[in-house]
Each structure stands twice: as structure tokens, then as C-alpha cells.
Design goal:
Mean pLDDT: 95
Structural class: alpha/beta
Low-confidence stretches: none
Largest sheet: 11 strands, parallel
Number of domains: 1
CATH class: Alpha Beta
CATH architecture: Alpha-Beta Barrel
Distance between the termini: 11 Å
Radius of gyration: 18 Å
Number of strands: 13
Number of helices: 9
Helix content: 25-40%
Strand content: 15-25%
């Protein structure tokens, strides 16, 4: 089973950006299989929608390092772990810029990027970037089309409802061909259908507490059915599980969630956000927790 960790990107860690390189190096030395970033712009004072699975907007999202910059740092100080996003909010970005950033990081890392993308959910953040939230689904679909075009063969060309690219040359391509694997987060029937039709895999998440296998198996059943309807092999789709934590969670409890996901939901790749809700108070603390989680999971 592959085990990874979020980079120290949010909350108090954002005020110590040197910790990104330090954690990435030390996580690789301990044998971590992947390193991850998220994508948040602000923490609204009076949110219209709270963070999924909670009744509040986590305070750590008041400060967040740029995900592309954090992944770039991790790319240049490591050689082995996969580098993923969970998730980049695809509708916020012009596809040519998103394609270029991910292709560049894939080049810098020697082909280790996992492009984890989502449709987004915070109305305040959509307004901040000037993108109508009601268009997020259609923009997301078109973004996937445009990424495939930009990462494909020259000449690159795209004509859509929101973006148009005249035929031209884009010679910086991802190392991975035809592009980095694309994993999508999904919470709605339409989102799960999109995963089945278009993605390489699914990015579910679990919040602190006992692990319930149907959090993974239920959506994956619907996703694989959508893949079959689209003429794809349902069993080719992967699952990478995000495990959120919070202050007070025990290392044994975190490891138990990962192990139950492996044994009861056939999850073969999971990553733990040790900085979510202030579980790890420093990079040194995060490194210690990561090492202990790795030891417990790999012992079983």
C-alpha cells in the first residue's frame, strides 16, 4: 500500500514556508510514497457554505501557500515520491496556465505528478476569482478537454464555450504521456459520472472518526457503473484516499483508518493530512507523526 502525506502548507505552517522543503526531504527519507497539496484562497468571515463534512470553516485556511509553488519545491528536493493535488479547483484557472504549470512540475519532478482536480464549493472563493459558481461544472468539463489538448501532440488547438486557443505549438509537455494521471474529487451524482467517464481515478476523503467503508465503496460502485456505460474498463480506475485529522487524534487511530481502508475498501493508496485542524504543530512534529504512522501501517 502506498502511504503519503500533505505538505505543511496551511495555517501556522504557511508562515514558515521553509518547512515545505524540510518536510518533503525527510518524508522521502522515511519512505513516504507521495506528497500532497490543497487549494484554498481565503476563509470568509460569514461563509455561505461550510467546509464539507464540518459545521465551520477551518481557521487554518486563513493562511495557505500557493499549491503550485509548494509542489515545485517538493519536486526539486525529492526524487521518488509522487506529487499530488487534492485538489486544485479547476474552474478557477485558465486551462493553458493550468496545463503549463502541471507540465512544468511534471518535468521538474521527472514525471511524478498526479493531477487531482475538483469543481470547488466555496461561493466566496468563486466570486474572488471572478468565475460564476453556476458555471463550475461546464467549465470543469471544458477544462479537462483543454488539458488533454495542451498535453497532446502539436499543433495544440481548442475551441470551447469559455476558452479558445488558435492552432499553435506548445512544446513543454509532461514527462508522463499522454499526461499526468487525472484524479477527480466528486460528491454529487454528476461529479461521480464525470469521474467514471473522464478520469483515471477518484479522490474520496474521510474526516476524523471511525472509518466507514461505504464512503469509498458506495461512490466507487456508481463511478465504475458510469465508466462501463462510457465504454471504459471500470477496473482501470484507481482510488486515492485523503485522511483528514484533527488535534488530539492518536497515531494508532490514524493508522487504523488507513488499514481499514486497505482491508475493507480495497484502497491501495492513501495520504494523511497531519496539519489539518492543527494536529501537527511544527514540521518536526509532523515528521515524527508521519514516521510513526508509516511504521504502524507497514508493520501490518
Amino acid at each position: 500500500m502506498r502511504i503519503g502525506f500533505n505538505l505543511p502548507q496551511f495555517g501556522s505552517h504557511a508562515h514558515h514556508p521553509e518547512g515545505v522543503a524540510e518536510f518533503a526531504r525527510r518524508a522521502e527519507e522515511m519512505g513516504a510514497d507521495s506528497l500532497w497539496v490543497g487549494d484554498r484562497l481565503l476563509a470568509p468571515l460569514e461563509p455561505e457554505v461550510n467546509y464539507p463534512g464540518t459545521t465551520a470553516f477551518p481557521a487554518e485556511f486563513r493562511a495557505g501557500l500557493d499549491p503550485f509553488a509548494a509542489l515545485t519545491v517538493a519536486a526539486v528536493v525529492t526524487t521518488r515520491p509522487l506529487l499530488g493535488s487534492s485538489v486544485l479547483v479547476a474552474p478557477w484557472y485558465a486551462p493553458p496556465l493550468l496545463a503549463r504549470s502541471l507540465a512544468t512540475i511534471d518535468q521538474l519532478s521527472g514525471g511524478r505528478v498526479i493531477a487531482g482536480l475538483g469543481a470547488g464549493w466555496s461561493p466566496e472563493e468563486f466570486r474572488a476569482v471572478g468565475v460564476p459558481m453556476g458555471e463550475r461544472g461546464s467549465r470543469f468539463d471544458e477544462c479537462l478537454d483543454a488539458l488533454a489538448a495542451y498535453w497532446g501532440t502539436n499543433p495544440v488547438e481548442h475551441h470551447g464555450r469559455f476558452w479558445t486557443t488558435a492552432a499553435g505549438y506548445v512544446d513543454v509537455k509532461p514527462v508522463q504521456r499522454p499526461g499526468p494521471p487525472v484524479y477527480l474529487a466528486a460528491f454529487t451524482p454528476a461529479g461521480m459520472t464525470r469521474v467514471g467517464r473522464r478520469a483515471d481515478g477518484f479522490l474520496p476523503a474521510v474526516t476524523p472518526g471511525p472509518f466507514e467503508p461505504t464512503i469509498v465503496t458506495g461512490p466507487m460502485s456508481r463511478i465504475r457503473a458510469a465508466a462501463a456505460r462510457a465504454g471504459r474498463d471500470p477496473h482501470e480506475l484507481g482510488v486515492i484516499l485523503r485522511v483528514n485529522t484533527m488535534a488530539g487524534d492518536s497515531v494508532h487511530g490514524i493508522a487504523e483508518v488507513v488499514l481499514r481502508a486497505r482491508d475493507e475498501a480495497a484502497v491501495d493508496h492513501a495520504f494523511v493530512d497531519l496539519t489539518y485542524r492543527d494536529l501537527a504543530t511544527s514540521v518536526e512534529h509532523a515528521v515524527d507523526l508521519a514516521g510513526r504512522v508509516l511504521d504502524l501501517v507497514r508493520a501490518r
